[in-house]
Amino acid sequence: MSVLLAVGGARVRHAEVAEEARLYPGTWITAGHYETRAAANKAVRGVRSGEIRAYRPQGAYAAVVQMIDGHPGIAVRYAGHPATPLLDMRTVEEVYVPRAGRSENPDAFRAHVAHALDRYASGEDLATEAWTHGDPIRLAAEIEALAGLRRLRLFRQNAQSGGAS
């Protein structure tokens, strides 16, 4: 969900953009259009500095000016609290479904990821299994599944140790 904004004086819904960015740490979220590049640059400075309240504390968000539909605009991403490392909290499905759609065979990719997750859940060690290049879709899907499992393990470890989530 990208928020449509600011051509012709409409206001950017910064609180919604900041919230969406926190849900998908590290992912660029289109925040909106501005009438001038100067206005977009000012918004970027406000995001980075925390001057715009929704993007506090200072340094928790990154922002860049980009052209959006022929108008200057900004994109924002959550980088995490400056004192804590960024943790990717997305589920395996949130990451692999869009990637499956870009695969040569999306159905096979999804099936291979599901199979790899099932095998992992049943106790198999996919990480030490010998991989071959015979089926590149299967290989990519298994790597995706393992990366997702690792991401979740790190998030859970951090949550159990009382770190930021």
Describe the structure.
With 165 residues, the protein is an alpha+beta fold. The protein is built from five helices and three strands. It has helices spanning 14-23, 37-49, 92-101, 106-121, 136-160, and strands spanning 29-33, 61-68, 71-78. It has a three-stranded antiparallel β-sheet. Helix 3 runs antiparallel to helix 5 and helix 4 crosses helix 5 (136-160). The relative contact order is 0.12.
Could you give a quick summary of the protein structure above?
Helix content is 45%, strand content 13%.
Question: Could you name the key traits of this structure?
Answer:
165 residues; alpha+beta; three-stranded antiparallel β-sheet; 5 helices
Radius of gyration: 19 Å
Helix content: 40-55%
**Which geometry do the CA atoms define?**
elongated
Order of strands, widest sheet: 1-3-2
- Mean pLDDT across the residues is 80
Main sheet specs: 3 strands, antiparallel
The SSE string, one letter per element, is HEHEEHHH
End-to-end separation in angstroms reads 22 Å
The number of helical elements comes to 5
Number of strands: 3
Strand content: 5-15%
Q: Which structural class matches the secondary elements?
A: alpha+beta
| Low-confidence blocks of residues | 1-10
Which helices and strands occur, and which strands form pairs?
Layout: H1 14-23, E1 29-33, H2 37-49, E2 61-68, E3 71-78, H3 92-101, H4 106-121, H5 136-160
Antiparallel strand pairs: 1-3, 2-3
